[in-house]
Amino acid sequence: MKLEIIDEGVIEYAEMLAKQRRIFSEMVECKKDGRIIEREYIFMVEHKPVITLGKHANDSNILFSEEELAMLGISIFRIERGGDVTYHGPGQLVAYPLIDLESHKLGIKNYVYLLEEAVINTLAEFGIKGERVSGASGVWIDAGTERERKICAIGVKSSRYVTMHGLALNVNTDLDGFRLINPCGFIDKGVTSIAKEIDKKVDINDVKEILGGKLRSLLGCLQ
Question: Percent helix, strand, coil in the chain (nearest 5)?
């Protein structure tokens, strides 16, 4: 199984969503027909400011009206991933793996764990200790303390063990964007970024390379 990691740079959310859905549908049809999926993908992107709601999200976690958000140039997308509401914006690295979990002998819970592990290992390269929080997906800092804050959100969709959507890691993100929402539905948790934790901006291309390598290694894929 070959894994292709594709850097899409800054791309409109709607364009990337359409691309994901097209490839996802093709992979699912391949599984339905009993054919072997020969290539998997991880898209690495940044988005202009946008808010997305998962399939079980509570609209009340968006703190401004659609009209107010439109005036700020921010669109809302209701999508098929798990999880609640999140914000995407420049300086945030979003990774969209389209893979066949069955070929990697993974269930969805183990897959989410794997995504978290890749982020935790990536953060370690910057001297940051990423952690898990029981009952909440994603990666956190100072888990279990009053300073608990989220650095990476995770929300995925799976059909016939094919995945889409993925993770959003705050690298150099302007965290003011999260004031528009209750991030992931939480009203008592903070958010943070790599830049905030180490008090300097980092090259997002370096983070892409590190995270891509961690994902490839954990999935055990070929180039």
Answer: 35, 30, 30
Identity of the residue numbered 198: I
Percent of the chain with pLDDT over 70: 96
Instruction: For tokens 């959310």, name the residue.
Output: 13
Task: Specify the pTM.
Answer: 0.94
At 141-198, the pLDDT tens digits run: 999 898 999 999 999 999 999 999 999 999 999 998 888 877 665 656 789 999 999 9
Rounded Cα gap, residues 176 and 162, in angstroms: 34
- The neighbouring-strand residues paired with 10 are 46
Which H or E run contains 76?
A: strand 75-78
Q: Measuring CA to CA, which residue among 139, 163, 51, 42 is closest to residue 94?
A: 42
The answer to whether the beta carbons of residues 140 and 131 sit under 8 Å apart is yes
Q: Domain containing 188 — which CATH number? A: 3.30.930.10
Is 77 a residue whose pLDDT tops 60? yes
pLDDT at 5 over 80: yes
Which residues span the domain enclosing 29? 2-219
Helices of type H across 66-193: 66-71, 108-124
Residue 168, both tokens: 């959003």
Cβ–Cβ < 8 Å for 88, 183:
no
- Give me the amino acid identity at 160: R
* Three-class DSSP category at 58: coil
Q: Is 30 a catalytic residue?
A: no
What's the CA dihedral at 212, 85, 196, 171 to 10 degrees? Answer: 20
Number of domains composing the chain: 1
